[in-house]
Structures are given as C-alpha cells and as structure tokens.
Amino acid sequence: MGENPDAANGSPIVGPEGYVESGNARTMAIRRAYDRDLPQAQEYRRYLEAQGYPIEGIEQPVLVRINRANMEMPQREQLARDLNVAALTATRAFASAAGAT
Fold first, then answer.
1. Largest separation between any pair of C-alpha atoms in the chain
2. Are 1 and 30 in contact (CB under 8 A)?
3. Whole-model pTM?
4. Alpha helices in 1-83 (DSSP H)
5. What is the pLDDT of residues 9-46, one digit of tens each?
6. Which of 16, 21, 56, 100 is the most core-located residue (most Cβ within 10 A)?
7. How far apart are the C-alpha atoms of 81 and 84, rounded to whole Å?
8. Residue 15 · residue 67 · CB < 8 Å
9. Cα end-to-end distance, the chain, whole Å
10. Strand 65-66 to strand 13-14: parallel, antiparallel, or no bridges (unpaired)?
C-alpha cells in the first residue's frame, strides 16, 4: 500500500476529480481497517509516518498516486478499465497515458 511503480500494486491511483482509477479494492481494505480499528490500520499509519508523510490531524490517512495526465473523459474511462486488468498491462497503460516510453 506504499510506493510501487506497478499500477496494479501499491497505493491506489486517483484522477484529479478524486475518483479511484486503480486500486478500489485496496482503498476499501484500508477504509475497513480504519473503520474496524484493526491493528493493520495502526501499522499502516505508522508506516506513513515513518516514510515522512505529514499525517498529523488526518483521521484516516491514505497514500494515493494522482493521475495528472491531460486526458479527455473517454480516455480516462479506458485507462480505468485497463488499470484493472493484469499487472503488466496496467503498468503499460498507465505509463502510456502519462506520456512515458
């Protein structure tokens, strides 16, 4: 749930509107851990603090990656579909949409 170059793993990816494009299940798992006050929620919080993320005052912090690619809505919808398939395909889709080669 931390930093990871693979779009299918690591922190969820959200668009500029705040909608989860990849990692909805990961987002829900974090939310449930916080809601149920599970030990994993506190471990995750400590992990974020140890990595230097400013989480003081945030009740349920979640690390996310923000997709800042300039895309029209049909492209964003296709990207979200592509990001929710096999890891290799998802990573290529994200890199392509972000303009990486």
1. 42
2. yes
3. 0.70
4. 24-35, 39-50, 73-83
5. 788 888 888 888 888 888 899 999 999 999 999 999 99
6. 21
7. 5
8. yes
9. 25
10. parallel
Report the relative pairing of strands 13-14 and 20-22 from DSSP bridges.
antiparallel
CB 47 within 8 A of CB 55: no
The label of the residue with tokens 């693979």 reads 6
Q: For residues 55 and 41, what is the distance between their CA atoms, to the nearest angstrom? A: 13
Q: Give 14's strand partners.
A: 20, 66
Collapsing DSSP to helix, strand or coil, 66 comes out as strand
**Residue 101 Cα distances to 29, 89, 91, 94, angstroms:** 32, 14, 12, 11
How big is the CA angle at 99 (ends 73 and 21), to the nearest 5 degrees? 40
The residue whose two tokens read 């030990």 is 39
Token output for 53: 């993320």
C-alpha span between 40 and 99 (Å, rounded): 35
